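Sample pair:
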Amino acid sequence: MEQMKMLYRLDVLNNKFSGDLQILVFNNMSSLQFLLLANNFFSGNIEDAWKNKRSLIALDIISNNMISGKIPTWIGSLEGLQYVQTSRNRFAGELPIQVRSLSELKMLDVSLNQLVGEVPSTCFNSPSLAYLYMQKNGRSYTTSVLFI
């Protein structure tokens, strides 16, 4: 896959692919805008090699069920991200405050994980944010988000 420098959309939705996410290497895919890996059986943590994908608009890893670890803090450096879907996995810990840097964010779905802690309203400064899904996380997960 590293030879696909001009690939802008990688869509492997609804297959039965399995294995560690760290085998997915996107280092040379500088044009990648859509990374759609939902409804598979991937496992492991989100690879740090993804942190330089500033061209990403959509990250969809819903329903992989075995993806674990924390949502990485570098997600805030992907300033063009508009759609982030991570529900139905095993993400734990707190939602990184760096999410507030995603000024183009239109949809954030972190539901059905194991997130805990408080989510300050400053995490959601995007004027474009239209959809926010945070339900069914860890027991001590609270939010101070106020919608007007």
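Residues 79 and 102 are 5 Å apart (CA to CA).
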